[in-house]
Specification:
- The structure is a single chain.
- Helices cover 25% and strands 43% of the residues.
- The protein is globular, with a radius of gyration of 14 Å.
- It is of the alpha+beta class.
- The longest helix is centred in the middle third of the chain and has 19 residues, at 62-80.
- It has two helices and seven strands.
Length: 142
């Protein structure tokens, strides 16, 4: 459906925030997932690329890898106050990914928070390969 047009879309979910993420390949899927997380936080057009971080994330399968990836990004925001807008997946395997992130420190006056995401949940988490690309479903606790 939206593999070439959009990076992600919101899906109906009771008390939480559900997201369906798209990518033509796995790297794009994980990159778009990072984008979705921070795009839901704030207006990414107001975030500049002033800092760069490298991270390595592991998981026991693709869904676990997706959850751990998003949890690591959320942790970088919560513990160090970083907002990222660019996500370059340098290497990805079945159980790990390494990425370079670019963004800047959160500044309340410059970056109004739209959704306060508290956690990334395993509820209904999935990563699936389709004919036209990859799709993932993630539920955020808000």
């Amino acid at each position: 459906v939206g593999f070439c047009m959009k990076k992600y879309e919101l899906i109906d979910h009771t008390a939480d925030l559900g997201v369906e993420i798209y990518g033509r390949d796995e790297k794009e899927l994980f990159s778009n997932a990072g984008y979705a997380l921070f795009d839901l936080f704030t207006d990414l057009t107001r975030v500049r690329k002033k800092i760069s971080r490298h991270i390595l994330v592991k998981g026991i399968d693709r869904a676990d890898l997706m959850i751990n990836w998003l949890r690591e990004l959320l942790s970088l925001f919560n513990s160090e106050g970083y907002l990222f807008k660019q996500f370059v997946i340098e290497e990805i395997g079945k159980y790990f990914l390494s990425a370079r992130l670019e963004g800047e420190e959160f500044c309340p006056g410059q970056h109004p928070i739209e959704y306060e995401i508290k956690a990334v949940t395993y509820h209904q988490a999935e990563v699936t390969r389709k004919e036209e690309g990859w799709i993932s479903r993630v539920i955020f606790d808000i």
